[in-house]
Amino acid sequence: MAVTFPTASLLPIAGNGSQLGPHLSRSGYTCLAVYLAVVCLLSVAGNAVVIFLYARYQSLHNVVNIFLLNICVADIIVAVLGTPLSLASSVAGHWLFGSAGCSWYGFICTFSGCAQIVGIAAVSLQRFFFVVKPFVARRLTTGGALVCVGFTWAYSLVAALPPALGWSEFVLEGAGTSCSVNWQTGSRSYTFFIFVMILVLPLSIIVFSYSQVLVTVKKMAKCQVGNRRFRRADKKVTIMVVVMMITFMVSWSPYAILALYSAFGNSAYLPPLVTTLPAMFAKASTAYNPVIYFLLHDKFREALCYLLTCRRFERNLAIGPTTNPCKNNAILPSTLRAKLGFPLRAKSKGGEEKLQAVGSVRASLHPPGATV
């Protein structure tokens, strides 16, 4: 079947050439489509599981997890509202959704990408206050965390919306199956503005936060009180956020370098494959965070294990299968029931089981001010 392409007058393309012919071979577009389908599936499934676990288990309802959930929402927005457009266009071998669709795709990807990096910066600040200024961190309630999350989205909207309003523009890029800001011939002032908003400010916050955390942890290691305050679980959450930040930067750095080269150099003669791969590599960042959560966040991993196995489970302890294991979540051991927010059962003197308030147990597991 012949592949048709829109004319250059209908839809501009950034950087490398015209739309009047294909930019990749048919097999190249097929590989792009398969790659995007895998990324989209993993991102939607992984982030949806994280959101479901947060909604299902009360023990996950704390300040730091609100910030992590915010990043998951940003990831799933791209996977649901943006990636399918590029996937369908890769299957067809050209952009299918016209100028309005290009603007929508470019806005969604820019908006959500900004929300991801600003969300990571917000988690970095939370870790900074938790480790360096713990008494200040205790004042951050759930309501305060939600206000901070709202600010990250308002900030991202300010950064991503201008091209849709006429300050620069969204155009096709790479192989002609995705859209982004017009880095090459668009507004230089907006290019400078968005790089400051998306890279300079968030990265400055992240570097400052973790440099202070590192200095404080070294000081705390010299005293027993500091060691108790910065528990193993706190260290693992801090390490997890660092891994998230590094993964995000590794994913997006090639695209950022290409965008800078396009804005201040000459990318017109770069092969389409070279201008396509960095954008495709960056899109995979939406699928990484759920894997990081399940590998490095103990509570998310415990909740997922129970969700998948529906049997008695406790960290470092294997308990044999039971009959009707999922009924009313009654088979959970007491410590895990408390961690996951279920009522705790206790035996009375007469041997009859009755529900016991779990507040005191959870308070002992999660002392005031703890956010992990």
Automatic annotation (TrEMBL):
Name under which the protein is recorded: Rhodopsin-like
Primary location: membrane
A Gene Ontology biological process in which this protein takes part is: phototransduction
Which organism does this sequence originate in? Answer: Acanthaster planci (Crown-of-thorns starfish)
Q: What CDD domains would the database entry show? A: 7tmA_Opsins_type2_animals
Classification via InterPro entries: GPCR_opsins (IPR050125), GPCR_Rhodpsn (IPR000276), GPCR_Rhodpsn_7TM (IPR017452), Peropsin (IPR002962), Retinal_BS (IPR027430)
Q: Which PANTHER family match?
A: OPSIN
A GO MF annotation of the entry reads: photoreceptor activity
